[in-house]
């Protein structure tokens, strides 16, 4: 476990063990705030920040807390990082904070964070844990962003609306109207739309994984059939 | 037994140290961001007020110039638990309009928070939805960001339209509803009407209280914006 390579950590977080598509953790915020790109990006960044910071801190103290008080100590660390993030968001992106509302403080209860603390950070070095937190957070954030993009395009016919909530006045004109004014497809904006899009993405990932596997199997195939033929002929004669 | 006691003691100390460290981290962040957060909150609140009564119409600091709503009217305004304050807009020392907070409790998804600007003569200066949880694409058209519907209140008063017409068209009133959403506009129309009624009843006291208070003017840097 300790000698897991950095490449493997990245691959795990972003694809193979993606928190949102494979572990299916943190579905509540995933479905609730992905109505637009700016909301998804806001929550994605906040979650990534908390995850990377808490993983780092937990890895640092992993040899100083006993098994008995491990969980309370972890929760305390995670909660304090979440509250810090909350305060920072209020200070710098107040309007976005009011839109995301309860989902920022609820990052504390996101299973990914305690999950990574337990499964990874308390067994690995600080650098590896920080990277794991960052990659898992990115994996989660990217899926949020993808769902947000799809739902915003399908539901409102826009892209990057209200980005100034996150990037300030320079993003005031980033909104792209893809299907003209007044377009709207309600189900994509409502919670069922989030389930549908998330489901499609999971299916898509499985298809891609299967393709990769069959291709890999096809590459190895000549060797196996070759050896079989040898054996068959051997048996007949 | 002694070992158990020792381990409980040790673990408590460890947890205690953690609590202290996290408390210190939180306190530092809090102190570092406190002023910015207050400024951001003020900025947002002020922007909404200024939308209703623009800088060209008043000379005082809307946000600081307030008179509390008497507790017996909290229910009428839907602010039963938290109370609220009426912002006074003045030209010089003379009040020209008030902005009253109100909550429509019967939206499709719970509370719709409003601010209602009323000119001294009892006509509406403007209504804005401050926060709501209405269905995106349907009920959220009460939000000015989504549609101009809320501007339809401008200039209306208790007698214009007549009291029995203070309803949405579906209920044989004078106000449009949106396609697919009647509950949200109905709730807002009703609450705006109640707020107008509150102003009508409390007007004399409100204006007297406002006149007795010293005028709070803008800070110097904002003053230059409008002379």
Outline of the structure:
The complex is a heterodimer of chains A (about 240) and B (about 230). Chain A is mainly alpha-helical and about 240 residues long.
Structural features, described:
The complex is a heterodimer of chains A (237) and B (227). Chain A is mainly alpha-helical and 237 residues long. Helix content of chain A is 70%, strand content 2%. A two-stranded antiparallel sheet of chain A has the order 1-2. Chain B contains 4 helices and 5 strands; from the N terminus they run αβαββββαα. Chain B has helices at residues 2-52, 74-77, 183-212, 220-223; strands at 66-68, 85-91, 94-107, 110-119, 124-131. A 5-stranded antiparallel sheet of chain B has the order 1-2-3-4-5. In chain B, β4 (110-119) and β5 (124-131) form a beta hairpin. Chain A binds chain B through residues 35, 64-66, 68-69, 72-73, 76-77, 79-80, 83-84, 87-88, 90-92, 94-95, 98, 155-156, 184, 186, 189-190, and chain B through 7, 10-11, 14-15, 18-19, 22-23, 25-26, 29-30, 33, 36-37, 40-41, 43-44, 131, 135-138.
Topology:
The complex is a heterodimer of chains A (237) and B (227).
Chain A: H1 6-16, H2 27-32, H3 37-60, H4 70-92, H5 94-100, H6 111-121, H7 126-156, E1 158-159, H8 164-167, E2 176-177, H9 186-189, H10 191-236
Antiparallel strand pairs in A: 1-2
Chain B: H1 2-52, E1 66-68, H2 74-77, E2 85-91, E3 94-107, E4 110-119, E5 124-131, H3 183-212, H4 220-223
Strand order of the largest sheet of chain B: 1-2-3-4-5
Structural class of chain B, by secondary structure, is alpha+beta
Give me the count of strands of chain A: 2
Report Rg of chain A. 22 Å
Largest sheet of chain B: 5 strands, antiparallel
**Radius of gyration of CA atoms of chain B, rounded to a whole number:** 23 Å
Note the gap between the termini of chain A: 50 Å
- Strand content of chain B is 15-25%
Strand content of chain A: under 5%
Mean pLDDT over all positions of chain B: 87
- Can you tell me the residue ranges of chain B where pLDDT is under 50 for at least 5 consecutive residues? 220-227
Sheet/helix structural class of chain A: mainly alpha
Give the overall pLDDT of chain A as a whole number.
85
Count of separate DSSP helical elements of chain B = 4
Note the overall shape of chain A: globular
Oligomer: heterodimer
The description of the largest β-sheet of chain A is: 2 strands, antiparallel
